[in-house]
Amino acid sequence: MPYLSVGAENSGTIDIYYEDHGDGQPVVLIHGFPLSGAAWEKQVTALVAAGYRTIAYDRRGFGRSSQPVGGYEYDVFATDLAELLTVLDLRDVLLIGHSMGTGEVTRYLARFGSERIDKVVLISPIPPYLLKKSDNPDGVDQAVFDQIKAAIHADRYAYQTQFLHDFYNLDQNLGKRVSEEVVRASWNVAVDASPIGTMACVDAWLTDFRSDVAAIDVPALIIQGDADRILPFPATGQRLAEAIPDCQLIVIENGPHGIPWTHADEINRELLTFLK
C-alpha cells in the first residue's frame, strides 16, 4: 500500500494513500466528497483492462490518507496532486475528477499549468462557482451551506445518511442502480473521514473557480446527470461547458450525482472514447 508524504503535523507526517495499477498512458482519478479513491472501482477495472496505467488516491482527510486539522482548501489540495504527479514523474496524464475532485483538476491547471496533462474529464463538476453573489445570481444562497455545516455539527453520521440519499437519488435508484450494500459501504467511508475535514470541505465548496477555468487549455470532457441533486446541472456543468473552448458535454438522463457507480457502463464508455 503506497503512501506519499506531503507534509507534517506535530510529531507525524501527512501521508496521501494511493493505488497504482496497470501499464500505459497514466490516468489519475480524484474522488468526490465524502468518499475515497475506492469509489472509482468500476472505472479502475475498465481503464486497466483498456491498457491505461491507473492511479487513484485518497484526498487528505478521507479514506486511508492522513487526517490533519488543516489544509482543506483547494490550493493545498492542488499542491497534493502536483506532488503526486511529480514524485511519480507522470507525464501525458489523463486527469479525471468527480465532484470535489473537479476542483483539484481546475485549480491544478491554474496553478501548475498543463505541461504534464494531456486531457481532463470533469464528472458532476463543482466549478465554476457555487455561491450566489451579485455577480453570480445563479448560485446557491449562503444559508444553504450554513445549514449543512449546522447539520454536520449536530450529527455528522445522520448528515451523511441524508447526503448519500441525495448522492445516489435512492428514492429512484435503490435496488436498481445501487444496492443497500454499496450505500452502506459509502456511509462507512464517509463517517470514517476526518470530522474536521468534513466540516472544512463545505467552505471549500464555495471556492470561486471562474478565473481558474480559463487555464483549462487541454481538451476537456464534462459528464453530468440531469437529476444531480448535489450539484445541479444548470448551475455547474452547463455553465462550465460554456466557459471552456475545447470541451465536450455529455448529459446522463436521470443521472444522480454519483454516476460513476450508478451509470458506470455509460461513464466508462464515454471515458474510453474520449481518452483515445
UniProtKB/TrEMBL annotation:
<dbReference type="InterPro" id="IPR000073">
    <property type="entry name" value="AB_hydrolase_1"/>
</dbReference>
<dbReference type="InterPro" id="IPR000639">
    <property type="entry name" value="Epox_hydrolase-like"/>
</dbReference>
<dbReference type="InterPro" id="IPR050471">
    <property type="entry name" value="AB_hydrolase"/>
</dbReference>
<keyword id="KW-0575">Peroxidase</keyword>
<keyword id="KW-0378">Hydrolase</keyword>
<keyword id="KW-0560">Oxidoreductase</keyword>
<dbReference type="GO" id="GO:0016787">
    <property type="term" value="F:hydrolase activity"/>
</dbReference>
<dbReference type="Pfam" id="PF00561">
    <property type="entry name" value="Abhydrolase_1"/>
</dbReference>
<feature type="domain" description="AB hydrolase-1">
    <location>
        <begin position="26"/>
        <end position="263"/>
    </location>
</feature>
<dbReference type="InterPro" id="IPR029058">
    <property type="entry name" value="AB_hydrolase_fold"/>
</dbReference>
<protein>
    <submittedName>
        <fullName>Alpha/beta fold hydrolase</fullName>
    </submittedName>
</protein>
